[in-house]
Amino acid sequence: MPPVDILDAGELAADTGLRNRFAGSAHRILADLVASGAALGWTEPPSPDEVATLLDHVITAARDGDAALRAAYSGGRLVGLGYWTRYGRPTHRPHADLEKLAVDAAAHGLGTGRALARALIADAREAGVEVLTLDARGDNAGALRLYESLGFTEYGRLPGFVAVGERRYDKVFQMLDLRQQP
Fold this sequence. Notes:
The chain has five helices and seven strands.
């Protein structure tokens, strides 16, 4: 696979053609991953309109300093994306939630997720975020290992909280305290 370029929301928004293609490519990645059982917050693959609306919201929030969005391209093809959003309540403004990190199945194991996560952590630090949180399904061992290797620590777990059909999974909460890191 060719080298990966990590773009931010400003770079995506500046190129109308790229932004329009981004929504369709992001939908393909997210829908394919969810269809194969990935734990991304949907039980059924999201619609193209749902993904486009979500991305428009995140790009607008990023423009306002309340989010960060990163997209990984390899050879001109989207292979991953991730974003965080700041908590909206005034007392929680220094905190943000890493809501999505998704990498195309063909790019798994190549460092794309790590590159996206590192870029999003740097964006959070630059935006004055003090604590970056996330939650993941307990069976998503690869993602949990990635986050732990980046310094996230578990701060809570809800046993059997996530129901997918007849299956039950833990919901695992992790945090990265940016106040304690250079």
